[in-house]
Each structure stands twice: as structure tokens, then as C-alpha cells.
Amino acid sequence: MLGAWRSHSDYQYFLVENIQPIYASDKNRVIQFSEALSKLYNLDLDVLKLVLEPYYSNTGSPAKNQPEVFRSFVLMSLLKCHSITKWVYTLHHDDLLCYMIGVSPDNIPGVGTHYDLINRLWLEDPDIEKDRQDSLHPFKRKPRKKLAKNQKLPPRHPGIIQKFVDLALQGKIFESRPEKLLQQIFADVAVRPSANDGILGDIEKLTISGDGTCIKTGGSPFGIRTCDCANKGIFNCDCHRKFSDPDARYGWDSYHETWFYGYSGYFLVTYNEELKSDIPIYLRLVEAPRYDGVTAIIALSEARALYPDFVFDKFIGDCAHDNYPTYHLLNKWNIKPVIPLNKKNKNNSKYQGTIKINENGIPVCMAGLSMVYNGFMKDRNRIKWRCPFATGKVDSCNCKDKCSSSDYGRTVYTKPSSDPRLFTVIPRGSDEWKGEMKKRTSSERVNKRLLNDYELELSKTRGKKRWSFWIMIHSINIHLDARLKKSKFDFISMLDGLLGRAA
């Protein structure tokens, strides 16, 4: 059962009362943790109790210090400590860190308590998980064939994106997924407080970008042999083996142009222009060879269910998302797609109209010039284009007399329903399109923050459960960064004020 839960206000009082004496005797040491203190002081975990209560029984020994253990993980992430064992040892030798997580030096949560919280938040049958961990799995060699620069692994199953789109339109999502509780905690502890603080902007008109990233596991791809092939002189067998990370797979890293062993992370991110901050709102870990275009359908479905009060207005993705089923789904959900055309799909167009268009879906006039976007007509669901000469985009035109005698110039219309891939609601090449495309890198910057700033891969973690947990913890810290930047709260300044008033 869930034990006594110290409220956020009680934690704040505890923190200030215990930090003041240390600050008075060793000011520089407390200042060293100024940023971490400011973040933890503002991290309200009261909502976490409501989320966790259903997952604890009403009988048995109470689980103690659950908010303190969760706060301990957040501080681990901030201080870039990658080993729970080393972290607990550090707590036993540093009273300041103990007070920061909300415990006294004689009541430090043990290593097992930390691991127990991770296990409890993963909604998978422990017996099934243990059976998969202990069983033997096929050994797969690292692929030798390399792909071209910036080329991604194609979907392994033809038509899989359309199948997922059909399921999404029927409202079917993966409700039994083991990471569901982690996603809910992230939403309630980090995303919704940020939304309340205005960090996400207008939640009824959100622009989100989606992108995947490669995550190398700490487990070995060679596994442990249990066969006797070596005794028979066979040292290169393909027999089943035991793996420390049985869910890891080989995937292609298109940026570094190499194969990696691990997982692919897929995140939905929004960008705060005022703070110049990239804010993740949805996190998912999938198999390494999973195509981003497939994961995007799952991500969007689960995100809409996770945030029913949010309205996603625009979705920005790379060319891996350029396929007709994705456009069809986005249009059904009234989400404007901002996706560059995939060069490999150059001839994959459904448009059969009489208007000549270029490769970006922009009508071309008689003179061979791209026509000028003149707005989207909602009442008739069509895009208006005007003559580039009449709108002043070009100084002269040899076809003016042949084209139209009107000073207004020739006008043509394209309908997204004719070809949702070419005729997007926000026309390709327009100023609005270019402005939105600049936001696509926000998802890439979140990937960078997780991998580099918070040193995700240095933890040498094994298993989807622990990778998913640490991605959630690091992402909570990204939110705390943005909220601190907006509020400009400083724990040390507050402490100076309290000490000044006391004097």
C-alpha cells in the first residue's frame, strides 16, 4: 500500500529549514546547487499521488518515501549520475543532497527502493517480463549492407502505415502498453503544469513536430552462449542465446551512416518562441528498425487520447512521414500537415487535373512561373493562386496578353481533396510553410538534449523499461528548465531574502 505522502508545501518548508543552516556555514556549496534547488523547489509531486494510488494495494507494508524517491531520480538526472548504487552511496555521504530530495540523512531510500519504483511504474506482468529475460532468443548478426547518406530503413511490412491509420480512425490504440503509466506521469507532472504556466502557448492551437532518434543500449548484441558448439570446434554458430537486453534490435543511423544496436525513441515536441525552448509532450520507445512514419501514427493517436483537452493544429515531420495514409489521417483530424516531399515518391502522385503544377504542388502559369499563394478559402475548401505578374512578384511577362486581359491576372484554385499530399492546406513554398518548417528542428534539439545534455546513453541501461523511465525523468527536467526560465525563480535569492528578514 502507498505510505504517508509528504505534500509539496511540506517539502518546501522542510527544504528551506534544513538548507538555511548549511547556507549560513558553507554558502558556496549551496550556491553550487542553485539551479537544482530552484527546480526541485518548484517540482510539485502532489498530483503524482493521485496517479500512483490505484497501482498500490490496500494491504501490506506501506511503501515509504515514494515522492522522495521520485525526486531522487530527478536530482540524479540533473547531476548526471548514471548509477543508482553510486547515487545511494553519495547520498549517505552528503547531507545536502539528502535534504534536497526531502529526506533526513538517517532515512535514505535504499538501492532496492529505487529499483522497486521503476518496476512498479512499468505495466507489464512481472512473470512475462522475467520469462522473456531468462529465455533464449535468436542471434542476429549485424547487417553488412550500408544505406545511402540520409537514407532511412523502409517499412518492413508493405501497407503497414495504412493498417495503423485504419485502426487510428476507428479509435483503437494500444491501451495495454506497459509504458502507459510513465506517459501519464509525464503528462500530469510535467506537461500540464507547463501548460498552466503558459509554456506550451495556446493548447487549443498547438503546433507539434515529431521525429525519431537512435538510442544505443548498454546490452551486448552477441549475448551469452548456452550451446556446446565451441567444444565441437564451431565458434561462429547461430544458436539461440541469452541476452541482457532481449528487446534490443539493430537499426540504421542515417545521420552517422552506421548500424546501431538498441532502440528508436520517438517524441512529439512543441516550440516556445518567446523562451526559445523546445518542449516535449509525448515520449515513446520502439524497436530500432521501426520506420518513423509508422511510429508517428501510434504517437499521434496516443497523444490525442492522453491530452483530450489539447487541440493539435499543425504536425511537422520529415520526409519519412510523406505518405498518403498519413495525410489522410491528419486531414480527418483537422491537423494541418507540414511535411517535405520525399524525393523517392516524386512520381507517386494521385493528381490528374488539367492545371500544370511543379514538384511542390504549386500551379505553374503559361510563362512557366510559379503562381502566388493568395489564401485558403475555408467555405469551399480550396487554395487560391494568382498571377505572379499581377501580384508584382515579377517585373515582366511575355505571356500577359495570351493569359488574361484582366489587371487582376489569372486565378486558379487547387483543392486538398484532389491530392492531400501535393495540395496541403498550408501551401508548400509559401512564407507560412517556410516559417513552420523551421520549427521542425525542435524535435531534433530535444533528441540532442536527451542524448548529450543529460547523457542518456552513458547510463548503459538495459531493457525498454529502464530506458523509458530515464527518458521520462530527463524530459521532466527539460520542462523544469523552461518553467524556471519563464518564472526566473532563484532559490538562493529567496533564501537571502528569508535570512535578511530573520536578521
UniProtKB/TrEMBL annotation:
Q: Where is this region: Disordered?
A: 133-152
Quote the protein name from its UniProt record: Transposase IS4 family protein
What superkingdom does the record give?
Answer: Bacteria
Q: Spans of biased composition, class Basic residues?
A: 138-149
